[in-house]
Amino acid sequence: MTTHDVALIPGDGIGTEVVEATVPVVEAVAERAGFGVETTRYDWSTRRYLDEGSMMPDDGLARLREHDATLLGAVGRPDVADHVTLNGLLLPIRKGLDLSVCLRPCELLAGVESPLRGYEPGDVDFLVYRENTEGQYADVGGREHVGLPNDVAVQSSVFTRRGCERIVRPAFEAASEREGRLTSVTKSNSQAYGMVFWDEMVEEIAADYPAVDVDRMLVDAASMELVRRPERYDVIVASNLFGDILTDVGAAVSGSMGLAPSANVDPEGVNPGAFEPVHGSAPDIAGQGVANPIACLRSAAMLLDDVGETGAAERLDGAVRAVLADESAPRTPDLGGSAGTDAVATAVRDRL
Ligand code: GGG
After folding, report:
1. 11, 28, 100, 278 - which has most CB atoms within 10 Å?
2. Low-confidence ranges of the chain (pLDDT < 70)
3. DSSP state letters, 210-264
4. Ligand 1: which of 86, 248, 278 to mutate, judged by most atoms within 8 Å of the beta carbon?
């Protein structure tokens, strides 16, 4: 029997709650499909940072490389600065494992209400390919003269040929397999170096995909259109920061942050992927047992697909869809219900 070896990093806040609710569902779908899942829990988190001085151990990335994939919850706690926790765990994993593709599907599913008037299931259905290792998230910059009148902060963006290729090409591939429409989102009117370079890379790679219609949009207009006419999008490709922001809007117009999954993958398949809900640790609801587990369950379905268990991934995704479409099924408060995390995860497991 094939067994997949999955690292679990529940992290902080509701991350721990949704990961713990997801694991039994993954085990159940694996059992039905006839493969095994072995999990290793890592306590890498802000708690660890406070106790031991670092979010993860020095050999953390080496350990993750030994697994087939990672399922991650969320990172962040109000008592430690966000840039410390993000740069101590999430970003080193994405960058260190060369996970340049962050794939974030945005879909209005049956049984879910969009805040957009008149939008029905299926009216919102696009993929965002977010560059995940460089761009505005590059750790390039510094501070000088801190606390003095000439206090200065410099933060540089980085765009490389390899980095652009490793996100733009997968986005074109996805558009080729979907409706053949790719929207590249930049701000190249004001960012005349990095983003003009990005535009040039898109144009160069577009030559290999003549059947794909390419639309170039500035991020301000693209954001407005996400709210005004999300149906215009099929596949969006964007830099690290813009992709992050656009996918929060995408999650909102798809009904809830609690539904939005993501896959961080190495397009060459050298390093194992990391799968995580788009949402953060949500300290406002952490500990109450009411976090929506669906974003994490859908991320787990993407993980299963990535490790080659396509049938199980479809089964899990189908069970999630069936639960959402069923008016009598439990729902967490973000979807207008009053059910808890475990009740929703159990309903999905029962649907497998
Ligand atoms: N589950 C992902 C998570 O914890 N997100 C928190 C966050 O702030 N992420 C920033 C980012 O994805 O760039």
Report:
1. 11
2. none
3. TTSEEEEEEHHHHHHHHHH-GGG-SEEEE-HHHHHHHHHHHHHHTT-GGG-EEEE
4. 86
Ligand 1 geometric centre to CA of 206 (Å):
30
Reading the block at residue 254, the tokens are 């798809």
**Alpha carbon 158 to chain centroid, angstroms:** 21
Cα 244 to averaged position of ligand 1 atoms, centre (Å)? 8
Q: Each residue of 204-235: pLDDT tens digit?
A: 999 999 999 999 999 999 999 999 999 999 99
Q: Which domains does the chain have, with CATH numbers?
A: 1-107+266-352 (3.40.718.10), 125-253 (3.40.718.10)
Question: Does pTM surpass 0.85?
Answer: yes
Give, using CA atoms, the residue closest to atom 11 of ligand 1.
244
Q: Provide DSSP, 156-211.
A: --B--HHHHHHHHHHHHHHHHHTTSEEEEEE-TTT-TTHHHHHHHHHHHHHTT-TT
How far does residue 135's CA lie from ligand 1's centre (Å)? 16
Are the beta carbons of 202 and 171 closer than 8 angstroms?
Answer: no
Residue nearest to atom 8 of ligand 1 (CA): 280
Q: Whose CA is nearest to atom 4 of ligand 1?
A: 74
Tokens of 258: 């609690």
Question: Separation of 13 CA from ligand 1 center, angstroms?
Answer: 12
The CA 74 to ligand 1 mean position distance, Å, reads 7
| Residue 148 φ/ψ, nearest 5 degrees | -95, 170
Tell me which residues have their CB closer than 6 angstroms to ligand 1: 74-76, 86, 90, 244, 276-277, 279-281
- pLDDT of 2 reads 96
Q: What is the pLDDT of residue 346?
A: 98
Confidence (pLDDT) at 311: 98
Q: Which is nearest to 250 in space by CA: 135, 108, 120?
A: 108
The per-residue pLDDT for range 152-167, each reduced to its tens digit, is 999 999 999 999 999 9
Can you tell me which atom of ligand 1 is nearest the CA of 241?
A: 13
The rounded Å distance from CA 328 to ligand 1 centre is 32
